[in-house]
Amino acid sequence: MEVVYEDNHIIIVNKHPGEIVQGDKTGDEPLVDTVRRYLKEKYDKPGNVFCGVVHRLDRPVWGLVVYAKTSKALARMNEMFRKGEVKKTYRAITRNMPPRPEDRLVHYITSTERNNKSHASATPRPGAKEAVLGYRLIASSDRYHLLEVNLETGRKHQIRVQLSAIGCPIKGDLKYGDKRSNPDGSISLQAHSIEFEHPVSHKPVSVTAPTPDDPLWKAFDKILNENN
């Protein structure tokens, strides 16, 4: 487990593809249990250790996940997420060039539990929730394109389904239209950075995830560094 930030109230870890944020029907050990065990061992805590799930990240996705170490932090972080006071920036690699270098996408999303899949429509429909994101093309290689994505809403599989809807499925995301899976089972989407006011101290917190241990992600990192 890779801890990238920790204080008395919150802990932020870098999730790897395949890890689940909290328990599900697979029965696999969730990351929250790994964090709880880490806290118990590090601080030699007796009994049950509090660790609250603040938000979620899809299983095949890389990147930052915030957990609360106290009930006060959990309640306040939940409220901040609900009010949209947490800025999360994602990076996505696509095979196709987006239609515009920068855009704000608005769709209406419905989800199907049977196949755990979301569907995006350009127009409102019964039961659909509005989904809004902004994206910006920040780098390109010979075959792939790197987008920076900022969510304005938090819907199930939102980035995956909205990028697919404009003809840019995320690399490795077979569920939403890409041609081939990634060898490690990941999709090329990363929760890259997160910014918010600390729930207790009220000081600004800004954390950036390390570059995924993957040749394509590292190649894009090199391109970005060369351009800066």
Describe what is shown at a glance:
The protein is of the alpha+beta class and 228 residues long.
Describe this structure in words.
The chain is of the alpha+beta class and 228 residues long. The protein contains four helices and eleven strands; from the N terminus they run E-E-H-E-E-H-E-E-E-E-E-H-E-E-H. It has helices at 31-42, 71-82, 158-165, 215-227, and strands spanning 2-6, 10-15, 52-53, 62-68, 87-94, 102-112, 117-121, 129-140, 145-151, 189-197, 204-208. Strands 1, 2, 3, 4, 5, 6, 7, 8, 9, 10 and 11 form an eleven-stranded mixed β-sheet that branches. A hairpin with a 4-residue loop joins strand 6 and strand 7. The protein is globular, with a radius of gyration of 18 Å. The mean pLDDT is 95.
Characteristic terms for this protein:
11-stranded mixed β-sheet; 34% strand; 11 strands; 228 residues; alpha+beta; 4 helices
Work out the radius of gyration: 18 Å
Which class of secondary structure composition applies to the elements?
A: alpha+beta
Percent helix, as a range, is 10-25%
Our estimate of the beta-strand percent is 25-35%
Low-confidence sequence ranges: none
Q: Mean pLDDT, rounded to whole units?
A: 95
Fold topology:
Layout: E1 2-6, E2 10-15, H1 31-42, E3 52-53, E4 62-68, H2 71-82, E5 87-94, E6 102-112, E7 117-121, E8 129-140, E9 145-151, H3 158-165, E10 189-197, E11 204-208, H4 215-227
